[in-house]
Design brief:
Number of strands: 13
Structural class: alpha/beta
CATH topology: Rossmann fold
Number of domains: 1
Order of helices and strands: HEEEHHEEHEEEHEHEEHEHHE
CATH superfamily: Alpha/Beta hydrolase fold, catalytic domain
CATH class: Alpha Beta
CATH architecture: 3-Layer(aba) Sandwich
Distance between the termini: 39 Å
Oligomer: single chain
Number of helices: 9
Strand content: 15-25%
Shape: globular
Length: about 400
């Protein structure tokens, strides 16, 4: 969906610019460097939940299968191999049109504005770093459409601060998921919400998808117990499953809110600009929770588009924080802006997908608050940033005990 809007918007820009069609390409950008002390490793695994069928697949006759990405504090050596932002299987699937290659308006314009995938800071095939005890665990889920690789900046940074970050790719809802065995899942009608659906249909679809995503997170939490107890696993006795947090962007943030409302294994959670699904509206999360939103000129509490997120904050029963970032828009809470050059970012800004804040700056702010919040409520250590909003002049902080 974002790509279609982008293509149409770019066409309009090119026409208005009177034939502005030549642009110097820049190479792939690096993600912001992790700010913690640990180097970072990454692995991908395919996990199958044999207890339920995939309700979002076209036929719903196969068990639900998830492509899991895990970032972790790593013991990196000079011989360690950098992990690509996306593995070759993902890149090949993105380039596969399912038939003869055709030069369409969409692919042409996307090629003009894309810089390529950013350069990551993780390494593949490296052991978990030694430490006095196991590492706390954070589950991460994407928004509808994007996939876990689009949130690499968060995962790498949190892993560098001593967390194991478990990214749950959502097949049928992400535009593309490539599994470790080489197979590919693309978005389905059941796994997405049509743009032109009625409000009632949209709410029904959101609830159906939300239930599957909550079950995905619940399954992963259970599976991690087996991973931690498996002597053949690289994470054998390295996971502190008594200290678990959940977070996500957009629909993934709404899922974190829903899971933390009902699952005692969630010690704390964070929602990055995601309105609660209808089934969860009015519920009060009783665990520490961090809400982050794009910047609204009149404030989130006074904007209809942010009303439900603000309401969730007000109803939260445990310690809660509401962070709004001036100049940010919805996709500033992802790596997406770093996948486009100056023209692409201009168009994304014109369509309202991103704001005026520099992509690196927006990610740095969100990363700083995620680390501070989870340090305070998952690790149990002091986090002065939560009480020092002047550190970032773009940020407005609301909090309650």
């Amino acid at each position: 969906m974002v790509r279609v809007i982008l293509a149409l918007a770019i066409l309009a820009v090119l026409l208005l610019a009177g034939g502005y069609a030549v642009l110097a390409h820049t190479g792939p950008e690096s993600l912001p460097a992790p700010s913690g002390t640990y180097r970072v490793g990454r692995v991908q695994q395919d996990w199958v939940d044999q207890s339920r069928m995939d309700a979002l697949a076209g036929a719903s006759t196969t068990p639900r299968r998830l492509a899991i990405w895990i970032w972790y504090p790593a013991a990196v050596t000079a011989a360690s191999r950098p992990a690509p932002y996306v593995p070759a299987a993902w890149q090949n699937a993105q380039n596969d049109t399912g038939g003869p290659r055709r030069l369409s308006l969409d692919t042409l314009l996307t090629a003009i504005v894309r810089t390529g995938t950013p350069e990551s800071h993780a390494y593949t095939g490296v052991p978990v770093a030694s430490s006095p005890g196991p590492y706390p665990v954070l589950l991460m889920q994407p928004g509808l459409g994007p996939a876990i690789p689009d949130y690499t900046a968060y995962a790498e940074n949190l892993a560098s601060h001593g967390y194991v970050v478990v990214g749950i790719n959502e097949p049928d809802s992400s535009n593309l998921v490539a599994f470790a065995d080489g197979s590919v899942a693309r978005v389905t009608a059941r796994g997405s919400i049509p743009d032109r659906a009625s409000q009632a249909a949209s709410e029904s679809d959101a609830n159906a998808i939300g239930r599957v995503w909550v079950d995905d997170a619940t399954f992963v939490l259970g599976r991690l117990q087996s991973v931690d107890g498996d002597a053949s696993s690289p994470f054998y006795r390295r996971l502190d499953l008594g200290r678990v947090g959940l977070f996500g962007h957009s629909f993934g943030g709404a899922t974190a809110l829903a899971v933390c409302e009902r699952d005692a294994r969630c010690r704390a959670g964070a929602d990055l600009d995601g309105n609660p699904v209808p089934d969860a509206e009015g519920a009060a999360v009783g665990r520490p929770f961090l809400f982050m939103s794009e910047g609204y000129p009149q404030g989130c509490a006074n904007d209809q588009n942010c009303r439900l997120l603000w309401q969730a904050y007000q109803q939260a029963g445990g310690p809660a924080y509401f962070i709004s970032v001036a100049g940010s828009r919805h996709f500033n809470y992802s790596d997406v802006p770093l996948q486009y050059n100056a023209l692409g970012r201009f168009v994304l800004a014109r369509t309202g997908a991103i704001g005026s804040i520099a992509p690196d700056r927006g990610l740095a702010i969100a990363n700083a608050y995620l680390v501070a919040f989870f340090d305070r409520y998952v690790k149990g250590v002091d986090a002065p940033l939560l009480h020092a909003p002047a550190t970032f002049p773009e940020v407005q902080v609301n909090s309650k005990p």
